Automatic annotation (TrEMBL):
Record-annotated Nudix hydrolase domain positions: 6-142
Keyword Transmembrane helix: no
Cofactor: Mg(2+)
Region called Disordered, residue ranges: 151-171
PANTHER family: GDP-MANNOSE MANNOSYL HYDROLASE (PTHR43046:SF12)
PROSITE patterns xref list: NUDIX, NUDIX_BOX
Pfam assignment, any one: NUDIX
Keyword tags: Hydrolase, Magnesium
Name this polypeptide is given: NUDIX domain-containing protein
Length: 171
């Protein structure tokens, strides 16, 4: 069965602390279930991808001093956003910031964006994470980034179909 999906443009930032830990947020999607994602989200009409990633990161963390770097990866995935089946096209940028908790009262933003919690993950902890990661290859991508640095051009990770809670992948 094919589900008609709304297209959405989005951008995220891979926020790394000085020791290489990554900041992630936990979401619970009706189709996918619990999964950890990078800060970021949907772009406003006409919004530049990096500007949108930075805006979303401020809204979701309170951090206004994330130092952006190059675009690392692009990918597409499906999920249900506020009851609407969605195919999201994402650009993921590199960013750096000190290791700290989000700043300010972000309860409205968390509620609006469906963020359950957030935390910093070391690469070793992330490799043992029991929940899905978005993008799914995040552990290998981080390892490659730590060993080789950012790619000269963003790597296209392609389309990743979700594995819905009912166990039947969607097209």
């Amino acid at each position: 069965m094919t589900i008609q999906r709304t297209t959405r443009r989005a951008a995220r930032i891979l926020v790394l602390d000085p020791d290489g830990a990554v900041f992630l947020q936990l979401h619970d999607d009706p189709e996918v279930g619990l999964h950890w994602v990078l800060p970021g989200g949907g772009l406003n009409p006409g919004e530049d991808e990096l500007a949108g990633a930075l805006r979303e990161t401020v809204e979701e963390t309170g951090w206004t001093d994330v130092v952006p770097g190059p675009a690392l990866w692009t990918w597409e995935h499906d999920y249900t956003r506020k009851g609407v089946p969605t195919r999201q096209h994402e650009v993921i940028f590199l960013g750096s910031a000190p290791r700290r908790d989000p700043i300010g009262d972000l309860s409205d933003s968390f509620r609006h964006d469906g963020i359950l919690t957030c935390r910093w993950w070391t690469p070793a902890e992330l490799a043992d994470c029991p929940d899905p990661l978005w993008p799914p290859s995040l552990v290998a991508l981080l390892d490659d980034l730590h060993r080789h640095g950012p790619p000269a051009q963003p790597l296209n990770l392609g389309y990743t179909p979700n594995t819905p809670r009912d166990g039947h992948a969607d097209q």
